[in-house]
Amino acid sequence: MNFYWLIPFIAILILATCNGAILTSEKKDRVKYSLLLFNSTLVIWAFLDVLLWVNKIGDESGVILQKIMSVSWLSIGFIFLNFVYELLKKKRDVFYYIIFSITLFLVIVSVSSNKIIAGIEIIYWGAFPVFGDWMLPVLAITVLPMFYGLILIAGVLKKEKNANLKTTYKVIILGSLTTIIIDSAVDVIMPQVFNVRIISMATLGNSLLSAVYLFIISKYHFLELSMEEFSKNIFDSVHEGVILTSEDGEIVMINNSATALLEKNESDIQKIISMGDSSNALIKSKVKDIETSESTYLNVSKNNLLSADGRKLNLFLLNDVSELVKYKNSLLDRNEEMQITLYRIGHDIKGPANSIKQLVLFSKTDKENSEVYLEKIDVSIQQLIFFIQEVETLIRAKESDLKIEETDIAKIVQRCWSELGFYMEGKNHKLAIDVKCTHTIYTDATLLYSILLNIISNAIKYHDLANKKENLISLSVNCSNNILYIEITDNGMGMDEATVEGIYKLFYRGNSIVSGTGLGMNIAKKAIERLNGSVKISSKPGKGTSFYLSLPVQDKNNLGS
Description:
The chain is of the alpha+beta class. The protein has 3 domains: 214 residues, Rhopdopsin 7-helix transmembrane proteins (Up-down Bundle); 94 residues, Beta-Lactamase (2-Layer Sandwich), CATH 3.30.450.20; 232 residues, Histidine kinase-like ATPase, C-terminal domain (Heat Shock Protein 90), CATH 3.30.565. 56% of the residues lie in helices and 18% in strands. It is built from 17 helices and 14 strands. The chain has a 5-stranded antiparallel beta sheet, with helices on both faces. Helix 2 runs antiparallel to helix 3. The chain is elongated, with a radius of gyration of 44 Å. The two termini are 82 Å apart. The model has no long low-confidence stretch (mean pLDDT 76).
């Protein structure tokens, strides 16, 4: 055994040290990992060289080992070019993919044929490859991407203002050229042109290039985070959206949160940048919420900064305040609704109360007709009680928790019919009930009662007895898969489309002739929604109206689920 193998072994130590420096560097970007790939390829090359030098493998296994090693040096040019593209943040172009394709082709040719590696020759210091017919042009092609990469670096060298980075580029160019010259001279020119096979210095030349990278990593902080990158990392870790622009509105930096909020919507970005001297603004974004399709609202604050080099910058901080805006609007709507409700409640209570007061006075002065006055007082009191019940149900439908209990629909319908007697005034109203639910259901009985009461009361109040002999109301109930299906149909006045569309609005009155509070159908709708149900209406003027309800219910088997 000779000791010439120490040459590639020393190369491995230098290359491994460089790999360690790359791995422990601060950066976590593609530049770091592309350099790690490049240096690791050199490590594999040197390791295979050690195996060949130590054992002087000259048989078929030696040829196989040389072909495996050729994968390293055939691909090293492309891998270097890949590193340069990452370093310069250059977009992959046609030339990049051509080099990749050629490299892949040559690797396959080298491993599968003798056109590049024809054999192996044992020299006193180790094993030397015998070149095939394609070897010299292949070597030229292999070096070409490295030269192209160096040309790209030289191209940005003049424009680079960062002194450390500028020196780094120069050292990379110098180190790479030195390595190419050493490798070409010792392993190609000397044996092929002058037929002189001196000790192979390729791996040591490669380690020289690795030492260059080790030097720029330690001396010029090559793989350390720059101030801009450090700032970007801080920006990206901030939950708020951050946009940094120059004085003329050019975006210097935008963090991940801002990108997510704006989804790269140009009009929103321009709206923010052109805020002028405003220090704070609420912006309605064009970006819609994915789940609700509602508009998003951004609170944007603007601050003026001065960079280290004296440049004026604008810092915009973005917060998604959609939920706050939605809550604020909800409070405003509820406040407005509450004011209207209180006003109408006061107004609608005064009516029956004044009637009672007047009837009491009449009964005192006209004692002969006191029975008539008492009946009218009773009707007014029932109207007042009915109105108070409506208000209570309206509040309960909005705020209270559901009280799920055993419910008898037929009894609820009969109760509604009985309590609405004061509206009928002896007129010809008829109710047909058809309940086909064979099992006990569980739901909020109070809300269900309120729904049926208000729909049936409308069917009674909006009768068409002026044109028809009787007001027919039919109510059918079916149950299937824990869904209660209720159909309520009448032959009353009916409604046009405009009335149907407005029927659920608070205090809406579809007909000024018939008395009412305008609360009933709003209450019914809210109660249906509270029970997670749905309602559809079919109506034609002069023909009547049908309500189709679908209400989820429970039974004993799934009670509480």
